[in-house]
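Batch job 17 of 40 flagged for manual review because the log was empty.
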Amino acid sequence: MSIHIRLINEADLDAIVAIQDSCYADELFENACLISRRLASQPQSCWLAENNEGEVLAYLFSYPSRNRQVAPLGSEFGYYADAELLYLHDMAVSHNARGMRLAPQLLAYAEQYAADLGFSTLALVAVQGSVPYWQKQGFEVLTLTGTTALQALSSYTGQNAVYMQKQIQG
């Protein structure tokens, strides 16, 4: 089976919401309207993997952000003229595509995009016990300080949310 990576568009949102719903706990669900607004604000940094039949198998939403800046769950993506890194907000792989190594392929796209922007760092919030997975991908846990960052991290209630970063080659 051949896999294609491409930018996400509005027509993909139903498939993305279905994957999100099957992969995340209910308290992490973000509705299609919010996802659509995020896509409109950052269309160049949101990718999906699909098969030859056009079935969406995985996706990744990201955007340029600041160091140790956490996007609260359910928030709009910010625009930062002084962005320092690429923040990976949401990546999920459908259950029927597990084992196809789609997440590393999407991560490679994000790394290349970050490098093209002149960034040497990726960041994310790991949820649902995914810290070991992200550590295998080269991410390290960072401790956040400051009220704003800690409040944003706490928006991922009950998910043992952990802020992580990865240094990449430019």
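Reviewer: the log was empty due to a logging misconfiguration, but the result itself is present. Strands lie at 3-7, 46-51, 56-65, 85-93, 121-126, 140-141, 162-167. Unflagging and moving on to job 18.
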